[in-house]
Write a structure and sequence with these properties.
By secondary structure, this protein is an alpha/beta fold. It contains five helices and five strands; from the N terminus they run H-E-H-E-H-E-H-H-E-E. Strands 2-1-3-4-5 form a five-stranded mixed sheet, with helices on one face. The chain starts with a helix and ends with a strand.
Length: 163
């Protein structure tokens, strides 16, 4: 059995007890969270979120520039008015340069990633502050949106505000 087969089986169990079919697509708490795809982060758990309460947008590194398209939809089509940017300690995107990531991807895939900016960072807190400033200055984000930035500590499970 593959891992995907196991996931499908788990979904069958989940669906038998599913009670959230009537939730509307706009999140009830009107908040969007931008964070990393790292498997150690489960935003619903560490933020106390339930189904239907928030949009959670994930990508490698939790980069706000990459999340902008989804955030624009979240705000202007689905009514969110707050954004939490949450990067984390021990992030792989803070360990390698763009060139190193491209070399690893090319070697493993045989493809040419030269046109991709993998958006690595060298200073975690500055990356969060940069994301917050980027979103606040974007004309695609509502001018009155509340935008705050945090670092999640993978060792303690805590979030700490940095912007």
């Amino acid at each position: 059995m593959t891992t995907i087969d196991e996931l499908v089986s788990a979904n069958e169990s989940y669906a038998r007890e599913f009670v959230h079919g009537e939730l509307s697509s706009p999140p009830s708490r009107r908040v969007a969270v931008v964070t990393c795809m790292d498997a150690r982060l489960i935003p619903s758990r560490f933020l106390g979120l339930e189904e239907g309460e928030a949009h959670v947008i994930r990508n490698a590194g939790g980069d706000a520039r990459e999340a902008l398209r989804s955030l624009a939809v979240s705000q202007h089509l689905l009514g969110t008015n707050e954004i939490a940017v949450i990067r984390h300690t021990d992030c792989g995107m803070g360990k390698y340069s763009n060139e190193q990531i491209a070399e690893k991807v090319a070697a493993a895939s045989g493809g040419d990633p030269s046109g991709i900016d993998f958006m690595p960072f060298t200073d975690l807190e500055q990356a969060v502050r940069g994301d917050v400033e980027f979103l606040k200055s974007s004309d695609l984000i509502a001018a009155d949106a509340v935008i705050r930035g945090f670092v999640y500590d993978v060792k303690t499970g805590t979030v700490r505000e940095v912007a």
